[in-house]
Amino acid sequence: MPSRHSESPPNDEEIPQAPPKPHTPTASPFLSQPSTPRVLHRQVWQIAMPAVVTMLLQTVNGLMDMFFVGHLPTGREALAATGIGGSVIFLMISLAMGVAAGTMALVARFTGAQQPENCRYATGQSLTLSIIVGSVMGVILYFGRDALCGVLLNSKSDTIAPALCSQFLGMAITATIPIFLINVLQSAFRGVGDTRTPLVITSAMIGVHILCNWLFIYGNMGFPRMEVRGAGLAFAISQYLGTALFFVALVRLAPLGDVLKKQYLALSKEWVVRILRIGVPASVQNLVRVSSMMTFNAMLARVPEGAAAVAALQIGMRTEALAFMPGFGYSVAASALVGQSLGAKLPDRAERYAWTANLQAIIVMSLMAVFFYTFANPIAAIFASDAMVRKLGVDYLHINAFCEPFLATAMVLTGALQGAGDTVRPTYITIFTMLILRTIVANILMFHLHLHTHGAWLTMATTTISGGVLTFIWFKMGRWKSIKV
User: Fold this and answer.
1) Which residue, 106, 344, 406, 454, could crosslink 122 as a Cys pair with Cβ 3.0–4.6 Å?
2) What is the 3-state secondary structure of the chain?
3) Is residue 397 assigned to a domain?
């Protein structure tokens, strides 16, 4: 997508807008306070911490999934199947996050500019878009899941995992529309600076998800034993619950309470273009990440360790999420505060928010990296009884622990850029590091130098470091300050 899409938005007079209303409920309480370092750190922490806890809870939820599935009789194959199935689910989440990126940037910008009517338009239009796109994606993936699982888990020595993966997705994909709605609603809440409501709702979703895993995977309390299929059903139930709770909370949120009125939900070409100018590059960026990981999984399935390597990757990534999910929380804080600051025409304050969030993320993620490096062996032992899977998982954690500061920088500054409406340049960086560089390095290390799984982990480290450095350079140039949304 040409870069001009993020720099040449439609003229304001082409888009239905309400005039600015000073002293409205959407006026950001953060921007009325002094911009001393202590205040900035406290404000970043105030927004980031609920988002960090939310992401950590989701990480624990993923680890619990692995715990339940990893102790099934099919063990290794079940882990590989749900890992790949989870990648497909994240494909849908990535598309939803693209629409949500437009929601976040616009709602945050209008909050800073004190324009509540436009906050409602941005949210309502995004909800309608999410239903349309979610419906199309759900149908495509549901009927194509068998072929997709066969491609991603193609291994001559393993015919069980593809079938299990299809069983998991057959249940999980039924929640496609709720996945899209939840992402948009989370972004709207965060755009106005509310990260506590998503935390409360996510907590309820995770509690139900874990309970349903226990009920349906093993067939407890009289429920049928569904094993991997039960894991997919548990996920779907939790998504429907979360959607219902978000809508209940939405009508009580002052700036957005009337957003379900027809005037906000009925699609407007001008608003759709405005949202997608930000959202499409963000979706492409997320799709590149997911497709890259799916391709990477397929490459792992072809090394001598086969399904053990794929299973170890799931253990490594979900354990590492204890570090990078806090980074996502700080990314949310940077996105909201940068967007609000630019809406209030305070670009220097926006930059200071971004660097403050980045510093805190580096500290937190580095501490978490020390933890999972030190306890790599017992962590791997918890989630896999297979000796080969444990060995490969430990190797993953030891190598990727050193990349966390770079991952923190990439995540937080990308969030800051999204808050400013600049989603094109981060997409270019993602394409280069995750598709071009990763493919080249992986082929050299894994197959030409015959490092196999160890080479795969080194490849991931190389691309993570490169992404952090390139994102830092682009953000430092400061061109994002002049982008209009």
Assistant:
1) 106
2) CCHHHHCCCCCHHHCCCCCCCCCCCCCCCCCCCCCCHHHHHHHHHHHHHHHHHHHHHHHHHHHHHHHHHHCCCCHHHHHHHHHHHHHHHHHHHHHHHHHHHHHHHHHHHHHHCCCHHHHHHHHHHHHHHHHHHHHHHHHHHHHHHHHHHHHHCCECCECHHHHHHHHHHHHHHHHHHHHHHHHHHHHHHHHCCCCHHHHHHHHHHHHHHHHHHHHHHHCHHHCCCCCHHHHHHHHHHHHHHHHHHHHHHHCCCHHHCCCCCHHHHCCCHHHHHHHHHHHHHHHHHHHHHHHHHHHHHHHHCCCCCCHHHHHHHHHHHHHHHHHHHHHHHHHHHHHHHHHHHHHCCCHHHHHHHHHHHHHHHHHHHHHHHHHHHHCHHHHHHHHCCCHHHHHHHHHHHHHHHHHHHHHHHHHHHHHHHHHHCCCHHHHHHHHHHHHHHHHHHHHHHHHHCCCHHHHHHHHHHHHHHHHHHHHHHHHHHCHHHHCCC
3) yes
Tens digit of pLDDT for each residue in 277-286? 998 998 888 8
pLDDT (0 to 100) of residue 75: 67
151 vs 366 pLDDT, higher one: 366
Half-sphere exposure of 397 (CA within 13 A, CB side): 30
Six-digit token string for 427: 């997409």
CB 412 within 8 A of CB 357: yes
Predicted confidence at residue 403, as pLDDT, reads 92
**Residue 28 belongs to some domain of the structure:** no
Q: Which residues contact 28 (CB under 8 A, 6 or more apart)?
A: 111, 112, 193, 340, 344
Query: Which of the listed ranges 29-38, 225-234, 323-332, 471-480 does the model predict with the highest average pLDDT?
Result: 471-480
Quick one: pLDDT at residue 187? 93
Domain count, the chain: 1
Domain-located, residue 25: no
Measured distance CA(376)–CA(469) in Å, rounded: 27
By CB atoms closer than 10 A (0-12, 13-18, 19+), residue 219 is: middle
Residue-wise pLDDT for 375-385, tens only, equals 988 988 887 77
The predicted pLDDT at position 35 comes to 76
d(CA 335, CA 191): 8
How high is the pLDDT of residue 321?
74
pLDDT the model gives residue 8: 37
Question: Hunting for tokens 């996105």 — which residue is that?
Answer: 335
365 in a structural domain: yes
Rounded to two decimals, the pTM is 0.80
Percent of the chain with pLDDT strictly greater than 70: 93
Higher pLDDT, 423 or 303: 423
Q: Which domain holds residue 215?
A: 45-482
The more confident residue out of 318 and 461 is: 461
